[in-house]
């Protein structure tokens, strides 16, 4: 892929406009029959459908739904008929509907060899997927819920060690444009959202520490992670082109392991059964002017116009969102408690999850709350849209004279920094690992989540 437009084209292709002819390795009669359901020969398709229906083996349903994604529409008749015959459901030609059905059927275990099948089916787009889905590869998520976004590994190019300049030299920035503000080791850096919306993945060094900023544009979550390895080196990440519950799966280029954008955990591949989890770094979505006002010593990433031209990316604000309009992937766990794309501030503290509608936070400004055993305070700035969360140490806070000051219930003054709340002679109260997200994406991972309601 040489531009995001081609990514969208590939999705359309995968949904049924062009046939793929890459042969798959053997994987048992069940998988051979599933392959034959997409044969160019009608007799082969009908024979495969008849045999699958006679066997009444539900374990092939996940593989059939995988195959449906890659099957041209004019060859889908037998696939759909077999899916409906085995499941007893009338979902028709809706790929999204079948994905949600299989996702909800947690009682169905995929047929033996499904891991290898997954590697084979994804290798139709890129043979390198076999480095992830190999025989015996460990995994900690349901393989049947891993979907192709229609692109190869690194088909959406990451930004690696991009150039940055001091704020005083950033004439290309507009005061009200949105940025990701990241702080590490006392060093501040801003990344324009209009650029990250195209690339979705960034590897950089801030304050002497390697970091990755992973931005899942489909579910609205942009999270900064520390990426130093246990041996002191660094993981570098790319976009895998795969999704899990409409949340992007990134992969590290050192071990070809898939990682969750939302949790920072390895989920499929060589590192999946380790105890590794990427530490979350302070990261704020705010305006450029708001970030510079707080951090006049910040640097900012310089958009690479040559890279944009090569990939035909338009780095103007909103351009990437317009290109992606209408692109969506299915999530089987749903809730109408909030609107599907309601923007929330998401927190997960020691297994306790909570969603805070950002509109409510902006109205209230300061919210004192409790999540599990943790007492916390959330600060929201209506002028910039920025939200930050901190442990409260059991104190109750209110706004001070400025956006960078708080007063506690003893009228002590606290200074708001990116990494902690600070007051003279008192232990700092550390920043909590929160981030923005769309409601549907958060709920898909955390159906047990609480939802904050205005008092």
Topology (SSEs and partners):
Blueprint: H1 4-17, H2 29-36, H3 42-55, H4 61-70, H5 77-87, H6 95-104, H7 114-122, E1 146-148, E2 159-160, E3 164-166, E4 178-184, E5 187-192, H8 193-199, E6 201-206, E7 209-216, E8 221-226, E9 237-244, E10 247-252, E11 258-260, E12 266-268, E13 283-287, H9 288-294, E14 299-301, H10 305-311, H11 319-324, E15 343-349, E16 352-357, H12 358-364, E17 366-371, E18 374-381, E19 386-391, E20 397-399, E21 405-408, E22 413-416, E23 420-423, E24 426-430, E25 435-438, H13 439-445, E26 450-451
Parallel strand pairs: 2-6, 5-14, 16-26
Antiparallel strand pairs: 1-9, 3-14, 4-5, 4-13, 6-7, 7-8, 9-10, 10-11, 11-12, 15-16, 15-25, 17-18, 18-19, 20-21, 21-22, 22-23, 23-24
Helix pairs in contact: 2-3, 3-5, 4-5, 4-6, 4-7
Q: Mind explaining what this structure looks like?
A:
The chain is an alpha+beta fold and 455 residues long. Helix content is 26%, strand content 28%. The protein starts with a helix and ends with a strand. It has three domains: 145 residues, no CATH class; 160 residues, no CATH class; 109 residues, Rieske Iron-sulfur Protein (3-layer Sandwich), CATH 2.102.10. It has 13 helices and 26 strands.
């Amino acid at each position: 892929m040489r531009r995001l437009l081609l990514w969208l084209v590939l999705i359309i292709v995968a949904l049924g406009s062009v046939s793929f002819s890459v042969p798959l390795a053997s994987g048992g009669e069940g998988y051979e029959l599933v392959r034959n359901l997409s044969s160019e020969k009608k007799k082969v398709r009908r024979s495969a459908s008849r045999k699958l229906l006679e066997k009444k083996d539900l374990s092939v349903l996940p593989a059939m739904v995988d195959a449906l994604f890659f099957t041209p529409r004019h060859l889908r008749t037998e696939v759909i008929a077999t899916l409906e015959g085995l499941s007893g459901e009338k979902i028709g030609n809706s790929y999204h509907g079948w994905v949600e059905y299989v996702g909800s059927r947690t009682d169905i275990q995929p047929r033996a060899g499904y891991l290898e099948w997954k590697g084979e089916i994804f290798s139709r787009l890129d043979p390198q997927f076999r480095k992830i889905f190999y025989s015996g590869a460990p995994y900690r998520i349901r393989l049947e819920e891993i979907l192709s976004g229609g692109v190869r590994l690194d088909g959406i190019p990451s930004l690696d060690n991009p150039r940055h300049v001091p704020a005083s030299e950033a004439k290309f920035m507009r005061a009200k444009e949105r940025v990701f503000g990241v702080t590490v080791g006392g060093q501040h850096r801003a990344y324009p959202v209009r650029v990250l919306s195209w690339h979705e993945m960034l590897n950089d060094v801030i304050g002497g520490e390697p970091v990755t900023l992973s931005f899942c544009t489909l579910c609205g979550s942009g999270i900064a992670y520390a990426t130093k390895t246990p041996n002191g080196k660094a993981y570098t990440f790319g976009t895998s082109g795969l999704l899990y519950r409409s949340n992007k799966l990134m992969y590290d280029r050192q071990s070809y392991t898939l990682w969750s954008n939302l949790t920072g955990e390895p989920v499929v591949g060589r590192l999946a059964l380790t105890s590794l989890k990427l530490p979350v770094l302070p990261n704020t979505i705010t305006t450029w002017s708001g970030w510079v006002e707080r951090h006049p010593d910040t640097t900012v990433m310089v958009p690479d116009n040559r890279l944009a031209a090569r990939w035909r990316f338009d780095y103007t604000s909103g351009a990437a969102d317009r290109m992606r309009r209408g692109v969506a992937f299915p999530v089987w766990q749903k809730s109408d408690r909030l609107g599907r794309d309601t923007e929330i501030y998401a927190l997960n503290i020691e297994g306790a999850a909570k969603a805070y509608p950002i509109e409510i936070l902006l109205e209230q400004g300061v919210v004192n709350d409790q999540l599990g055993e943790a007492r916390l305070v959330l600060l929201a700035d209506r002028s910039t849209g920025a939200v930050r969360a901190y442990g409260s140490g059991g104190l109750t806070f209110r706004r001070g004279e400025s956006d960078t000051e708080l007063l506690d219930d003893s009228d002590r003054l606290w200074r708001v920094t990116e990494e902690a709340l600070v007051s003279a002679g008192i232990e700092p109260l550390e920043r909590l690992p929160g981030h923005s997200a769309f409601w549907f994406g958060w709920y898909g991972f955390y159906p047990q989540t609480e939802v904050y309601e205005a008092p």
